[in-house]
Amino acid sequence: MKCASIWMLAVVVGLMTSASPGMAQQEPAKNEPAKLAYLLAEAARSNPQIQSAKQESQSMQQMPTQVSTLPDPQVAIQQVNVGSPRPFAGFTNSDFSYIGLGVSQDFPYPGKLKLRRELANKDAEVAEQKVAATLRAVLSDLKMAYFRLAFLRKQSAILEADRALLRQMEQAAEVKYRSGTGNQQEVLQAQLQQTKLLREVTANRLEASKLQAELKQLLGRTQNSPDLVTEEIVETPVTHNFDELLSAAQSNNPQISSAQKSVDRQKVAIDIAKKDFYPDFNAQFMWQRTDPSQFRAYYQFTFGARIPIYRKKKQQPELAQAEIDRTRAQSQLEAQSQEVSSILRQEYVSAENSAELLKIYRDGLLPQARAELQAGFAAYQSNRQDFQALLASFLDVLKIDEEYWQTLSEHETALGQIEELTGVSLR
């Protein structure tokens, strides 16, 4: 259990990126961007789901000593009367009348308590893996919301800048219209595009508000707390190959580990079922006292056994059930391993492809589209290009700019998913 706790601590440290020891205690100033590492540390401390999983794990750790301790002894007081139901009747004149004090203790067959303790330890280990899985899932959700909110923040800035540019285009169209070299339709098209941009700005704010609520929930903050400001997204290179990440996932993924612990648990359950074919025992001691002036005391010791004679109806079905459960747990382990491998492959391919797309956007599409727009604006002002071509160039820049930051957000989100699956810090 101690080793598992150390491993979980390493997972937290790894997932909190390269945060320094003092990061968890610092808070960003108001309206300043909140570093992702700070928020990950805060979620690990304050998220209710994580705290609930930890408390469940702590609860399960109290079970091993309970199930591995002998049953409580039983104490009995006995009185036997002779000739009358009155208390102590015959006590002074008959050696059949007595007062007795006794104690009895049940003893499970040797090895049963040890196996029950081992079974409870396996359950506690499964619960501990659940803590790690919950921690990774919450931090992954936090990263996804953070990157999406960062994209929306950048998109908002792009939309505001493009609205300013579109106003310049509208003003240029009005100048040409008043001078007689343009037409009113061009002005109306510019105004229509302004309205469409305003619609996008409104949709951007609505989605950002939803993400703010999600982030506050993940951080364990109240919904009336100040909104978060994200940092600008920076591309993180993929520095590990797929085989390295797959190996890390098979070794470190808590869902796979939990499934493996379940297989180990069912092996212990089979051993317990086999032990149930053997009898449990009971020992009892009784001291009996009659009139001490006339009769001697009696001392009685009894040893009994609970014989499992209904094996076909109880023990054999119990063993068969335990073996079936082990086979099912093994199948679940294989299914979980394949699912993790499949998701990891998809996220890795997504990260690689998005990295290639970012290079294409950065080195080709973005500068080309902006250069075309600048040239088209100058050509429109000098009557060498019509407004439709200029508007098409403007929309191309807007679309490519948004696609670039959307792809960057998806790239970082894919890396966040990879970190959740593997426990490897990629930032």
Which features characterize this protein?
427 residues, Outer membrane efflux proteins (OEP), alpha+beta
Blueprint (SSEs and pairs):
Blueprint: H1 2-15, H2 36-46, H3 48-60, H4 63-67, E1 74-80, E2 98-107, H5 112-179, H6 184-219, H7 242-252, H8 254-275, E3 280-289, E4 298-306, H9 315-381, H10 387-422
Antiparallel strand pairs: 1-2, 2-3, 3-4
Helix pairs in contact: 1-5, 2-5, 3-5, 5-6, 5-8, 5-10, 7-9, 8-9, 9-10
Shape-level CATH architecture of the largest domain: Up-down Bundle
% residues in beta strands: 5-15%
Helix content: 55-70%
> From N to C, what is the helix and strand string?
HHHHEEHHHHEEHH
Q: What low-confidence regions span 5 or more consecutive residues with pLDDT below 50? A: 1-26
